[in-house]
Design brief:
Pfam families: AA_kinase (PF00696). By secondary structure, this protein is of the alpha/beta class. The protein contains 8 helices and 16 strands. The site of N-acetyl-L-glutamyl 5-phosphate (X2W) has 17 residues, from helix 2 and strand 4.
Length: 252
């Protein structure tokens, strides 16, 4: 089988409740020689600790408004709590892993999204793909959704957006957005296939909202920029919602 790159984004809720099937599927992909990059979130923990420390929690369409104090807390949560916990769970399942962040070898560089509106929030520009690809040929990379400006300032990036942009830059075969729901839901049922047009309608009807909005945008951005497949699921062994492009010509 051709070696391909799979990017898995794990949301902050999902990361605390990974089923056995998650580790088993990773082991299967490793045995097949697939390269795997995990981008992890941590939003619920950032919000919880912000509240405990009396820092305002504000999100605009799923993107955290991040002042300087919230950025410090975000780095501490992602790199000090969520990432080590995830690395130790993966290691306990004998999977070869390495923790990564934007500070290593210009791994992820970006610029401010809109500093007046969002504060220290970034958009990705550059990924050190040569170095990352080498790492991924040996280990599962586990990466926090932070970037640095060219002059070394840290930026908070929504993890769904980061995962999709990284998947695009790596020319990944698959982007899996692993979350706490089995897919995009409509009237309590998983929507098995979602076109961009149908997603727009569901957003306008307020069926898709809050944290699901950046996922939808991220998934379509990745597909439209060459990633072959994108899914939202709560289980790596179920496809949940598969995103489809209009070009695929599948009925909506
Ligand atoms: N149509 C929808 N289908 C499923 N979940 C939705 C939908 N609209 C909004 N959501 C919300 O999006 C949440 C997932 O986003 P989020 O909490 O940000 O997860 P994560 O931490 O995995 O990024 C779900 O738990 C649900 O509350
Ligand atoms: C700018 C921005 O929104 N950054 C996110 C990064 C973490 C994240 O996205 O975590 P989840 O995937 O668990 O939501 C945040 O601060 O919450």
């Amino acid at each position: 089988m051709k070696q391909q790159i799979i990017v898995i984004k794990i949301g902050g809720n999902a990361v605390t409740q990974l089923p056995d099937s998650f580790f088993q599927q990773l082991a299967r992909w490793c045995q097949q020689g697939q390269k795997i990059l995990i981008v992890h979130g941590g939003g619920p923990k950032i919000s919880q600790l912000s509240t405990e420390l009396h820092l305002a929690v504000k999100k605009i369409a799923g993107v955290r408004v991040t002042d300087a104090a919230t950025l410090e807390l975000t780095k501490a949560v992602l790199l000090g709590l969520v990432q080590p916990e995830l690395l130790s769970k993966l290691s306990a399942h004998h999977l070869p892993v390495i923790g990564l962040n934007a500070g290593c070898n210009q791994l992820l560089q970006g610029h401010y999204l809109d500093q007046a509106k969002y504060g220290e929030v970034g958009v990705l520009d550059q990924l050190n793909t040569a170095w990352l690809t080498q790492i991924l040929s040996r280990e599962i990379g586990v990466l926090a959704p932070l970037a640095q400006t060219t002059d070394g300032k840290w930026l908070n990036v929504n993890a769904d957006t980061a995962a999709a942009e990284i998947a695009t830059k790596l020319n990944a075969s698959k982007l899996v957005l692993l979350t706490d729901v089995p897919g995009v839901l409509s009237a309590g049922e998983v929507v098995p296939e979602l076109s961009q047009q149908k997603a727009h309608t569901m957003i306008a009807a307020d069926i898709i909202k809050s944290g699901m909005t950046p996922k939808i945008k991220a998934a379509f951005a990745a597909l439209n920029h060459g990633v072959q497949q994108a899914f939202i699921t709560d289980d790596l062994t179920h496809t949940g919602t598969t995103f489809i492009t209009q070009k695929a010509g599948i009925a909506q």
